[in-house]
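Key result, reporting period 2: structure in, sequence out.
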């Protein structure tokens, strides 16, 4: 195996004799496996020529590989020469991660099977095949990742066992703070997934930049302003919930100007969480504080739970870490995830003793967070208190249209209808926008003109579709990044009573009707209305548009129609430039007074 390869440092091979002269150590390097690395600039060098022919004659040299002097020198400088070959694989892996970073990728999937290895990279939510390798190569990559690049308690890579670890930032490109590794055996091999953890940018994104709407932000601010109670975010892996938590907590730190102690218990920390506090300059001689305009970073205390072998031990360590955190006098505590009775109990207990708690749980949507909590063993009678559990949030990430090249739906209807399933999507869209009462009403109409003629109060002028050819701004795929669709339930006592009484249908109705709940699909429709997302892509991500019957429709349509066109602010957040906006929406600029009040913009005429 590769691990046994080492450098031959004697001129006559390992059998002793003369040491290789120092001045040759940046020109060539012979390995025990017969590979010889040489800088081809020195192929005429007398010493090099002599050594190469000597090694060839004595059968030590089997393959010549060209490398730079720096790389050759680095081989000699490595302390542990036995891992040399491994370090080359490490370099390849690092290159793979660099490629991922350049594509804004979130995960690397490595599938090793009997006779092959396929590497795929997830970018913008979709997997793309990037390498087809031999089984051996795949094995060497996975083994190298697990045994030499990870900080994990169990250094033994066992393809026949499900394992987890974390790649240390040392081996990764600068933009990453680490990568979570999970492997699992498959029928004829195994599967490894590396989730890339990006370092936070120096400036945190705002909730609106993440994709939340004003009405969400209002709710989130209300939750952040509470002094006690639990806020729970749910969503599948990769739904961006950690980023949302990071932003919410950073805002709290900044709001509190560093006067509150924020502590996190994470497995392991995904992002550095910080806010900003005013920099105070104490002039000691005059014993007075001068508050300057300067702000300094103020960090949350992040406690990692790592180096555990199995899930039972992990749960135990996690819960110990929560108790330890509670003793460190926090005002705000973030618990990475509640996954069992103990962590759920600890979160509730912390909230009941006057702490503000943020945590995540695996649940499909906001309505199922509570059943999930009870499932994992939270005490219903403790949890069902609106002062204890205040906010239930669910989110997903959906693809954003490239604002530079997306096309108007109405102006490009023919092109749109050529796409698979487009007519059905259009019908569902019209029903969801309130143009038709239900799908039955429109089911049999197949003439789009007839379909659109009947629309009176629905404005589709803002709806944009993906340009499949793309442009230079979007790497020619018509999409640019992802954005949150979310639903937030602000609990109240009635909501809790319905949960206690286990009245599921009534609970749903109460949220939709009385609390005027906006679910993720409704949020998705708002994005489509604003031209920020392609309707077909949105359905692919959230399921077919089919609004729940209990929705407060009047409220929703009113809300939806307040988004006739994306606001300038919204477009800028989505990477738009003012000039593009001027070109695309000249009417905004003919009436400059409405730039800040797009809602009052007189409805634009429908194209055609
Ligand atoms: Zn584009």
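The corresponding designed sequence is given below.
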């Amino acid at each position: 195996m590769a691990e046994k390869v080492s450098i031959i440092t004697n001129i006559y091979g390992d059998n002793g004799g003369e040491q290789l002269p120092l001045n040759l150590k940046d020109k060539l390097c012979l390995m025990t496996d017969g590979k010889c690395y040489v800088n081809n600039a020195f192929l005429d060098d007398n010493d090099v020529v002599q050594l190469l022919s000597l090694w060839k004659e004595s059968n030590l040299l089997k393959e010549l590989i060209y490398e730079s002097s720096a790389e050759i020198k680095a081989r000699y400088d490595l302390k542990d020469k036995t891992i040399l070959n491994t370090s080359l694989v490490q370099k390849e892996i690092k290159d793979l991660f660099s490629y991922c970073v350049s594509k804004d990728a979130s995960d690397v999937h490595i599938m090793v099977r009997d006779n092959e290895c396929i590497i795929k990279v997830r970018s913008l939510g979709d997997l793309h095949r990037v390498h087809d390798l031999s089984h051996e190569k795949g094995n060497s990559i996975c083994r190298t990742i697990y045994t030499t690049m990870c900080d994990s308690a169990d250094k033994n890579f066992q393809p026949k066992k499900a394992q987890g670890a974390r790649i240390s930032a040392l081996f990764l490109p600068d933009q990453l703070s680490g990568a979570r590794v999970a492997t699992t055996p498959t029928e004829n091999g195994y599967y490894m997934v590396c989730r890339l953890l990006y370092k936070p940018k120096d400036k945190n994104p705002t909730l609106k930049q993440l994709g939340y709407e004003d009405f969400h932000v209002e709710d989130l601010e209300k939750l952040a302003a509470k002094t006690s109670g639990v806020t729970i975010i749910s969503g599948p892996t990769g739904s961006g919930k950690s980023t949302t938590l990071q932003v919410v907590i950073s805002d709290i730190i900044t709001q509190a100007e560093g006067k509150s102690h924020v502590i996190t218990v994470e497995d392991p920390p995904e992002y550095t969480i910080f806010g900003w506090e005013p920099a105070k300059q104490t002039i000691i001689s005059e014993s007075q504080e001068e508050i300057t305009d300067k702000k300094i970073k103020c960090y949350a205390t992040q406690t990692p739970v790592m180096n555990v072998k199995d899930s039972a031990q992990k749960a135990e360590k996690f819960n110990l870490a929560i108790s330890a955190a509670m003793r460190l006098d926090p005002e705000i505590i973030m618990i990475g995830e509640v996954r069992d009775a103990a962590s759920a109990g600890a979160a509730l207990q912390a909230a009941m003793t006057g702490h503000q708690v943020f945590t995540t749980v695996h649940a499909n949507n906001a309505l199922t967070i509570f059943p999930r909590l009870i499932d994992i063993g939270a005490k219903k009678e403790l949890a069902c208190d609106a002062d204890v559990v205040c906010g239930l949030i669910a989110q997903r990430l959906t693809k954003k249209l490239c604002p530079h090249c997306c096309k108007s739906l109405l102006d490009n209807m023919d092109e749109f209808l050529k796409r698979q399933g487009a007519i059905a999507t259009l019908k569902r869209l019209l029903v969801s926008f309130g143009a038709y009462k239900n799908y039955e009403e429109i089911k049999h109409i197949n003439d789009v003109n007839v379909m659109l003629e009947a629309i009176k109060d629905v404005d589709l002028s803002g709806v944009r579709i993906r340009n499949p050819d793309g442009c230079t701004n979007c790497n020619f795929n018509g999409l640019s990044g992802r954005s949150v669709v979310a639903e937030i339930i602000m609990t109240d006592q009635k909501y809790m009573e319905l949960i206690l009484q286990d009245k599921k249908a009534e609970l749903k109705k109460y949220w939709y009707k009385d609390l005027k709940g906006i679910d993720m699909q409704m949020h998705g429709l708002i994005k489509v209305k604003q031209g920020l997302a392609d309707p077909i892509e949105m359905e692919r991500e959230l399921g077919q548009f089919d609004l729940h019957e209990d929705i407060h429709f009047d409220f929703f349509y009113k809300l939806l129609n307040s988004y006739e066109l994306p606001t300038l602010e919204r477009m800028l957040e989505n990477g738009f430039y003012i000039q593009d906006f001027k070109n695309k929406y000249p009417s905004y600029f003919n009436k400059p007074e409405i730039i800040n009040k797009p809602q009052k913009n007189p409805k634009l005429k429908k194209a055609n």
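Residues 402, 404-405, 470-471, 473-474, 478 surround zinc ion (CB under 6 Å). The chain has 23 helices and 21 strands. This case is discussed further under Risks and Mitigation.
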